[in-house]
Known about the structure:
homodimer, globular
Amino acid sequence: MKKTDRPLILVTNDDGIFAPGIQHLAQEMAAFGDVLVVAPDKPQSAMGHAITIHNFLRLRQVEFADGIAAYSCSGTPVDCVKLAVYHIIKGRPSLLVSGINHGSNLSINVLYSGTMSAAVEGALEGIPSIGFSLMEYGIDASFAHTLPVVRSVTANVLKHGLRQGCCLNVNIPPAACGPLKGIHVCRQAPGHWADAVETRRDPAGHEYHWLKGEFLAKDQAEDTDVWATGNGFASVVPVQFDMTAHHELQHIATWDHAL
Amino acid sequence: MKKTDRPLILVTNDDGIFAPGIQHLAQEMAAFGDVLVVAPDKPQSAMGHAITIHNFLRLRQVEFADGIAAYSCSGTPVDCVKLAVYHIIKGRPSLLVSGINHGSNLSINVLYSGTMSAAVEGALEGIPSIGFSLMEYGIDASFAHTLPVVRSVTANVLKHGLRQGCCLNVNIPPAACGPLKGIHVCRQAPGHWADAVETRRDPAGHEYHWLKGEFLAKDQAEDTDVWATGNGFASVVPVQFDMTAHHELQHIATWDHAL
């Protein structure tokens, strides 16, 4: 890696290295430091915190906008972070940004999201990390209104740092919702996918199944990301990875655990 | 699904439907209720909370030990839960158990683990859910000493229930560590993978990469799962899925968030 006095910023995503969102994000980062893109060679949405352990990984140096150094990776978003840190950089970047995702990562979707899992992996590695998502799926979505949010949150993280074990989940409403009212720091809303399965038959008559579903927020209090983005704000949720249900420890310890 | 007065117990895993661990688990569950196995048709270790959204899924009814109803699924462990709930059962089972995993799921490995992600998905669905892991990878690992733990925790969950949004992560030391001293209810230890990348060249001279690494627990206090299993106990960690870093909300809200 090129060594300069500027911070090294690792950029990844889950929509794949050719998605418009990551091009916007990498180009914005160039104002803050030296940029390295390591991103999946194909869409890896909803891959969660998956890593590749039963197969090998390929890395390929690719052309990227503005001559930014970039590698495509055959694995998941978390694989990209691991290969960047342990093989390409051989050290920790100053910042990791993931996205800009094409689609929302509000509420419990932090669990399914490859974009956010890359940011969580960054936090596990002790790297200040941010995941950015635009709440619009289309390949032709407009990102212009997201860029001031990206700049503001990035500048804050470079200035203030992030506590060890904490990363940020930033969601931005679509341009069609009108000018942003600001940034709202908030918690992950409780929510749930009301799923459905659509069953079809292939030409040979065998059944196959598509998952589909509708996301339902259970709580839209004003301190949640669902409320914020539904009311014209970009949401910033600090995310940590201790999944212990601390409030249940005492109760469960009272059970009879004799073997 | 067969309708009886007995609880319906959904069994899944991430090692695949032909792994010995899931056979032991399903056979134990038959003492508690009617058992349905829906598990991946191939190993899906380290798939985290991945779901399949860019491809369809196949389900196939398969022969299983003791005539237990069983389906293999072409997707991830979380896909298995979704297909079981929304397509096969068309409702919620009384209990979901995942495992018995061949290998540890202590500490932050709850994030990477397909076994635990299936249990977390169960909790998201409002199903009392438990993930069981034997801390030994071998296909020929001995499971006999794990079964009293499986029975004890299962009986407790059926008796006491689990609070909405909480599931259990149970890890059991290998038989070689000697008789279990008991069950320890504890928190997820902080930890980290010190990863490495091994690069090789294929016959055509092109590089490929294998992820490998060593897990390092950062904190081995007596109230952690790493301490418990390192000291002869099976660990039970209650797990929840609010990843908000609540303790950081106030601090981050003080930043200048002007756009």
